[in-house]
Design a protein that fits this description.
The structure holds 2 protein chains of 2 kinds. Helix content of chain A is about 75%, strand content about 0%. Chain A has helices at about 5-10, 10-35, 45-55, 60-90, 110-135, 145-155, 155-185, 190-220. The N and C termini of chain A lie far apart (about 60 Å). Chain B folds into 2 domains: about 5-105, Roll (Ubiquitin-like (UB roll)), CATH 3.10.20; about 120-250, Alpha-helical ferredoxin (Fumarate Reductase Iron-sulfur Protein, Chain B, domain 2). Chain B has 8 helices and 7 strands, in the order ββαβββββααααααα. In chain B, the strands form 2 sheets. A 5-stranded mixed beta sheet of chain B has the order 2-1-5-3-4. Chain B has a two-stranded antiparallel ribbon with strand order 6-7. In chain B, helix 2 (about 125-130) runs antiparallel to helix 6 (about 200-215), helix 5 (about 180-190) runs antiparallel to helix 6 (about 200-215) and helix 5 (about 180-190) crosses helix 8. Chain B starts with a strand and ends with a helix. The relative contact order of chain B is 0.14. The chains are: A mainly alpha, B alpha+beta. The complex binds protoporphyrin IX containing FE, iron/sulfur cluster and FE2/S2 (inorganic) cluster (FES). The site of FE2/S2 (inorganic) cluster has 13 residues of chain B, from loops.
């Protein structure tokens, strides 16, 4: 048994999805908590302090590299799984489909939901991360005023709508993904499974909802 | 349950062999009793076809009592038809009503190629079992059954997993054609018992490797398999398989 054999089998590939998925969930917790500082409604003072720490301190910047690696691994492995799984199904499709009688639509659409999230992320990085890091020379240089950038970006209704759609996709991706990741990692005790399922549904509603409320809050002028 | 007769339209997949392309054909059967089994209804249809000199529809069946796992029919979008926890041979015509059109297809999976009409080649499952779904026992006198203490909960869980009849409905229902419910039942039922302990790690690794070689997909944990399994094998056995795999993968030389 080599490491390569372990992580390239059908079960091993899913282990990569599960571990990176949980890692991305941990990132979401930090991201949503920090961004929630905009609701202090203090003209962005608290938020800017937090963002400044994340953007210009060595440790978070090193962790950021890990985050990108995690995302890339999750996306590439996800696309490869989607291709493998379609091949396993074969060319001839069923005339009538089992559909909703046995499984939830979003559990069967993880690839599609992931792709929507990926498109959203490209736009999101282009809005904030890229201009900020470019200004810093990609090292620890001077940051731009992210709070002002947010205010400006979210004054456009179309961008707000795209952000909300991105959050809805994330919500459904997590509604299945959260509990699925724990199953993939081998949690089979019924007590733990029911706990993970409940926490997963709560997480998949609360976190994307909080994210979606951020552009909405700016657009509707709830925060200044 | 009141007895009634019905006339039905059947839309059945016909395919000469694995090299030809198949297509659906419409058939009509009349005066079918609600007491008949689904396979008996197919027997009636085949008699009809033989009488007019047509090739009868090939379908798999053996025990006709829900224990062998041979009867693989995908009926109206669900393996083994509309009833829960049931095989095609145990599906009775009272599940349908007069005038219904029933669509019957073979299992669809690259690892289960169609041999003829509704018969698919499921020997991939046999090869997965050969890769590790057994325990090695030396010849000699059989050991007394009660000599080995086994925890009752584990014995029950093992027995639940051992209910799997290898029918392949889980593969047929899965969007990925994944064999993980089958595999997890076979791995768990031995992993839970002391007799399965010596080969525990190599078993799960070898069986997963064989499953991949056969061309089954990965598991997305959608639950479509559990919902269609005639033996109601729980999807949590898949999580158990994952933990067996993770442990074996991390600790085996
Ligand atoms: C913040 C963003 C994301 C988070 C938190 C996340 C989280 C997760 C989690 C927890 C799972 C379940 C893993 C498992 O079943 O073991 C998963 C599955 C999946 N993710 Fe993501 N994901 C994200 C973004 C993406 C993106 C951008 C893609 C792009 C392709 C993607 C594609 C997939 C696919 C295809 C699966 C299903 C794999 C399978 O079971 O067949 N995800 N994700
Ligand atoms: S797990 Fe259930 S559906 Fe799958 S082969 Fe076994 S009995 Fe059939
Ligand atoms: S014919 Fe044996 S289970 Fe149906």
């Amino acid at each position: 048994m080599t490491w390569k054999q372990m992580f390239t089998s059908s079960v091993g590939k899913k282990l990569i999805m599960g571990f990176t998925g949980i890692f991305l969930i941990l990132f979401l917790i930090i991201h949503v908590a920090l961004n929630a500082c905009i609701w202090a409604n203090d003209g962005g003072k608290m938020f800017t302090q937090g963002a400044h720490f994340m953007g210009s301190t060595v440790v978070p910047r090193i962790l950021e590299i890990g985050l990108f690696a995690g995302f890339i691994l999750h996306v590439i492995q996800g696309i490869m799984l989607e291709i493998d799984n379609r091949k396993a199904r074969g060319k001839v499709q069923y005339a009538v489909n089992f559909g909703n009688k046995g499984s939830k639509w979003y559990s069967r659409s993880m690839g599609l939901l992931g792709t929507i999230i990926l498109l959203f992320l490209i736009m999101h990085i282009y809005h904030f991360w890229l201009p900020n890091r470019a200004n810093q020379g990609f090292l620890l240089g001077e940051e731009i005023d992210l709070y002002a950038t947010m205010k400006e970006t979210f004054s456009n209704l179309w961008i707000v709508i795209l952000y909300v759609l991105g959050c809805i996709s994330l919500g459904y991706h997590l509604a299945h993904g959260f509990q699925s990741a724990f199953r993939t990692m081998g949690v089979h005790n019924k007590r733990y499974l029911s706990m993970v399922t409940t926490i997963g549904y709560a997480f998949s509603i609360i976190v994307p909802l909080a994210f979606a409320l951020m552009p909405i809050s700016f657009y509707l002028g709830w925060i200044q | 349950m009141e007895h009634y007769n019905m006339n039905l339209n059947l839309k059945v997949w016909r395919q000469k062999n694995s090299n030809t392309k198949g297509s659906f054909k419409m058939y009509r059967v009349e005066n079918i009793s609600s007491e008949m089994s689904f396979l008996e209804m197919f027997d009636v249809l085949n008699e009809q076809l033989i009488e007019v000199g047509e090739d009868p529809i090939a379908f798999d069946h053996d025990c006709r009592e829900g224990i062998c796992g041979a009867c693989s029919m995908y009926i109206d979008g669900k393996p083994h038809g509309p009833w829960h926890g049931n095989t095609t041979c145990q599906l009775h015509m009272r599940a349908f009503k007069d005038g219904d059109t029933i669509v019957v297809e073979p299992w669809r999976a690259s690892a289960f190629p169609v041999i003829k009409d509704l018969v698919v080649d499921r020997t991939a499952f046999d090869r997965i079992i050969q890769a590790g779904g057994y325990i090695s026992v030396n010849t000699g006198n059989a050991v007394d059954g009660n000599a080995l203490p086994i925890n009752k909960d584990k014995a029950d869980a093992s027995f639940d997993a051992a209910m799997c009849i290898g029918c392949g409905a889980c593969v047929a229902a899965c969007k990925n054609s994944s064999a993980m419910l089958f595999l997890s039942a076979k791995v768990s039922h031995l992993a839970l018992l002391p007799q399965g302990e010596p080969e525990r790690k190599s078993r799960v690794l070898d069986m997963v490797a064989q499953m991949d070689k056969e061309g089954f997909g990965s598991c997305t944990n959608t639950g479509a398999c559990e919902a269609t399994c005639p033996k109601e094998i729980s999807i949590s056995y898949i999580a158990q398989l994952n933990s067996e795999y993770l442990l074996a993968g991390l600790t085996k030389e």
